[in-house]
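Saturday, quiet lab. Running sequence design on the structure tokens for the scaffold JK sent over.
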């Protein structure tokens, strides 16, 4: 089947992939059109996957100028003692919160104690770093790139945000 015909049917019937990109969701197609889609299902799935990849690539390209503005990755100092870090994290997680009508003051103390223990554990952790980029928009429709650097072991996290500048035409005078 021709690519133009497939693209036209995808647009007119608002098709998209579901269930881990193995099935197609179709809207507003009659019986004859559904037969065509069933007979050429593999071609439709392949084209929908191509379109999805093209869209993701275009999205990445649109934010490339913001990636250049991100600061260097942070350097986290550590002594690399994973055993000590694990012990401290277990001790911090074992502390229980109080439940009751007048336990708010006690829970504040428990929260502070847990935070201190986890901060010490982060100093000993041999960090397993993962980096994720979130491409979104700000409330005033500017592109926003958010980089989150986090350790999978201890939960330490660092976030950098960069957004487009407000154009001069949008500034109030």
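Result came back. Writing it out in full:
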């Amino acid at each position: 089947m021709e690519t133009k015909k497939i693209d036209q049917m995808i647009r007119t019937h608002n098709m998209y992939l579901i269930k881990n990109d193995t099935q197609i969701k179709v809207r507003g197609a009659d019986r004859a059109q559904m037969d065509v889609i069933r007979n050429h299902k593999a071609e439709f799935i392949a084209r929908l996957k191509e379109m999805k990849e093209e869209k993701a690539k275009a999205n990445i390209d649109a934010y490339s100028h913001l990636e250049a503005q991100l600061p260097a990755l942070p350097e986290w100092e550590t002594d690399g003692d994973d055993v000590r870090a694990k012990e401290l994290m277990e001790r911090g997680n074992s502390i229980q919160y109080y439940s009751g009508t007048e336990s708010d003051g006690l829970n504040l103390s428990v929260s502070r104690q847990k935070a201190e223990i986890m901060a010490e554990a982060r100093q000993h952790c041999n960090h397993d770093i993962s980096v994720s980029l979130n491409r979104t928009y700000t409330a005033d429709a500017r592109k926003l790139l958010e980089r989150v650097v986090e350790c999978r072991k201890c939960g330490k996290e660092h976030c950098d945000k960069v957004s487009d500048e407000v154009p001069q035409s949008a500034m109030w005078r």
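Notes for JK: The chain has three domains: 3-62, 69-75+128-173, 79-126. The chain has a mean pLDDT of 88. Ask whether to fix the surface positions before the next round.
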